[in-house]
Amino acid sequence: MLRQVAEGVLIHESKFCQSNAVVVQGRAGVLLIDVRILGSEMAALADDLRELGQPVVAGFSTHPHWDHLLSHPELGAAPRYGTARCATTVRAFLSDANWKTLIAPLIPPDIAEQVPLDLLGIITGLPAETTRFPWDGPQVRIIEHRAHAPGHAALLIEKARVLIAGDMLSDVLIPMLDLNDTTDPIEGYLAALRLLEDVAGDVDIVVPGHGSIGAADQIAARIDQDRTYVQALRDAHASSDPRVSPSAKEGWGWVADVHERQVQRLAQRSKR
Ligand SMILES: [Zn+2]
To answer: How far is the CA of 79 from the centre of ligand 1 (A)?
Structure first.
């Protein structure tokens, strides 16, 4: 079911991992950002849009992870985009004939049958350093950075003052670093948080890729919480982040395991 979070901006939440897809209304139809997750949910989204008389005119994936690259035939064949680096990363991945086998361990077995992969990652890269999404609709600023995944972008719907954060600024997920990044994943993440902080004054609503929508008063707090987490990782301090504590929200206990893995992998990296 679609839920309006600001004028012309609607959210469709998946049962899987509280994943948010975003719909932005333009003049001739909608821009769909990070379509999620189960086939039935994507078909229901297509139904909702049909009822509203809103064709899909474009799509965007915030970053090259499977759960942000999906689509469904009923959503039509409008072009889908990502940053240049995002598209290059996806193309390299899909060039492996065994990509469906490679992706299988990432998808929880209880939903694997329900996630259609045939349209995964069919995206076009925008020219490098594009900062405006090219479409006939409200101005959408692209904020590309190096946190979480190559070519990750947040989108700022300027007039509606909505920040679509991709996999950052979540109330349930900790910052998940791109530990395959050969440069400095900690500094990359902190730099990305600074970019988001720079626009925080223009934002009334933050939509994380997974988790609850945040109101204006939570934006600075979420940035601070993510920064504190990343700094504790960097300095090898124990984390007091509520998202990895035993009292984390029900169903999110696995986030503590992700945290432990990050601690271990960073320790290995620093030994190299
Ligand atoms: Zn991700």
So the answer is: 21
Give the distance (Å) from ligand 1 centre to CA of residue 215. Answer: 22
Cβ-in-10-Å burial (0-12, 13-18, 19+) of 208 comes to buried
Please say if the pLDDT value at position 65 is more than 90.
yes
Ligand 1 centroid to 51 CA: how many Å?
30
Q: Which long-range contacts (CB under 8 A, 24 or more apart) does 11-19 make?
A: 11/207, 11/213, 12/36, 12/41, 12/45, 12/48, 14/38, 14/41, 15/41, 16/67, 16/108, 16/111, 17/67, 17/210, 18/172, 18/210, 18/211, 18/212, 19/67, 19/209, 19/210
d(CA 215, CA 218): 5
Amino acid 149: pLDDT: 96
Spacing, Cα 53 to ligand 1 middle (Å)? 31
The pTM is what?
Answer: 0.96
Q: How many residues does the chain have?
A: 272
In angstroms, the CA 119 to CA 70 distance is 6
Report the C-alpha gap between 9 and 2 in whole angstroms. Answer: 10
